């Protein structure tokens, strides 16, 4: 005779239908990210050991070279020199780019005057113009800062312009209905509504800035990270060269990832609630 009542039967069914350990682990995004990195490292190690090219080191040799440069201080010194033109260029691009983008979004005369310039800068292969900057400013810090600005500013400016232009007209009309003046319309309606897209443009601009500073250090004068890459390539120390390249890629990914986290924290509450 069965002694289970209705509640015990439902509890037993719930335990049977409960997801297993593998299913619960598969629902954790970090597990998939770590698995992706592990597969990439394994493929790199196998490709390096296959000997298809003498200049392609194994993953383990690259990690060892990275640790060696980290311990002897050469990696840290290179990053300190690279960060100087990058920080100056990004700060200038942020201030001027956002100001120009907002001005183009608010005033048609500024839009007609400046928008074609930034569209050309965004569409043109700006890396091809870096040697021309060298002829004008020489192998100086100014030339590297301009290289960063040439790649970062168009992205920041165009996104700021689009953000202001895409502010819903109903919000502006609501401000008018409450007798808001032009200054209040800009500071309390337009800027808050445009901030998420402007911040996304800043994130893309930072990614372009990393490309600009590495190109500048490779094409203008070998300093910082560019100097490490050039030196180790010239002496056929390929594990150190790959370690340097991988480090700047990883550094850029971490920086852009942090900006994306800040963007989600400030402007994307709907994404914060998604588990």
TrEMBL record:
<dbReference type="GO" id="GO:0005886">
    <property type="term" value="C:plasma membrane"/>
</dbReference>
<keyword id="KW-0813">Transport</keyword>
<feature type="transmembrane region" description="Helical">
    <location>
        <begin position="185"/>
        <end position="204"/>
    </location>
</feature>
<feature type="transmembrane region" description="Helical">
    <location>
        <begin position="59"/>
        <end position="80"/>
    </location>
</feature>
<feature type="transmembrane region" description="Helical">
    <location>
        <begin position="145"/>
        <end position="164"/>
    </location>
</feature>
<dbReference type="Pfam" id="PF00528">
    <property type="entry name" value="BPD_transp_1"/>
</dbReference>
<protein>
    <submittedName>
        <fullName>ABC transporter, permease component</fullName>
    </submittedName>
</protein>
<keyword id="KW-1003">Cell membrane</keyword>
<keyword id="KW-0812">Transmembrane</keyword>
<dbReference type="InterPro" id="IPR035906">
    <property type="entry name" value="MetI-like_sf"/>
</dbReference>
<feature type="transmembrane region" description="Helical">
    <location>
        <begin position="30"/>
        <end position="47"/>
    </location>
</feature>
<keyword id="KW-1133">Transmembrane helix</keyword>
<feature type="transmembrane region" description="Helical">
    <location>
        <begin position="113"/>
        <end position="139"/>
    </location>
</feature>
<dbReference type="GO" id="GO:0055085">
    <property type="term" value="P:transmembrane transport"/>
</dbReference>
<dbReference type="InterPro" id="IPR000515">
    <property type="entry name" value="MetI-like"/>
</dbReference>
<feature type="transmembrane region" description="Helical">
    <location>
        <begin position="241"/>
        <end position="262"/>
    </location>
</feature>
<keyword id="KW-0472">Membrane</keyword>
<feature type="transmembrane region" description="Helical">
    <location>
        <begin position="86"/>
        <end position="106"/>
    </location>
</feature>
<comment type="similarity">
    <text>Belongs to the binding-protein-dependent transport system permease family.</text>
</comment>
<feature type="domain" description="ABC transmembrane type-1">
    <location>
        <begin position="79"/>
        <end position="260"/>
    </location>
</feature>
């Amino acid at each position: 005779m069965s002694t289970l009542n209705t509640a015990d039967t439902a509890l037993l069914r719930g335990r049977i239908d409960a997801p297993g350990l593998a299913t619960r682990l598969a629902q954790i995004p970090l597990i998939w990210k770590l698995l992706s990195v592990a597969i990439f490292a394994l493929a790199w190690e196998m490709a390096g050991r296959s000997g298809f090219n003498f200049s392609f080191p194994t993953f383990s040799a690259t990690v060892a070279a990275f640790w060696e440069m980290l311990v002897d201080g050469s990696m840290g010194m290179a990053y300190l020199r690279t960060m100087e033109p990058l920080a100056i260029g990004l700060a200038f691009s942020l201030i001027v780019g956002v100001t120009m983008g907002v001005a183009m979004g608010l005033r048609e005369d500024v839009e007609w005057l400046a928008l074609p310039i930034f569209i050309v800068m965004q569409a043109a292969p700006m890396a091809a113009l870096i040697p021309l900057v060298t002829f004008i400013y020489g192998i100086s810090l100014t030339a590297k800062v301009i290289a960063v600005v040439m790649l970062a500013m168009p992205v920041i400016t165009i996104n700021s312009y689009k953000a202001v232009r895409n502010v819903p007209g109903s919000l502006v009309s609501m401000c008018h209905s409450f007798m808001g003046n032009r200054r209040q319309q800009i500071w309390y309606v337009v800027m808050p509504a445009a901030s998420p897209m402007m911040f996304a443009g800043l994130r893309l601009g930072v990614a372009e800035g990393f490309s600009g500073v590495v190109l500048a250090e490779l094409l203008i004068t070998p300093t910082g990270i560019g100097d490490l890459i050039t030196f180790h390539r010239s002496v056929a120390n390929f594990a150190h060269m790959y370690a340097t390249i991988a480090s700047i890629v990883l550094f850029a990914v971490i920086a852009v990832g942090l900006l994306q986290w800040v963007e989600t924290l400030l402007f994307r509450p709907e994404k914060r609630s998604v588990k």
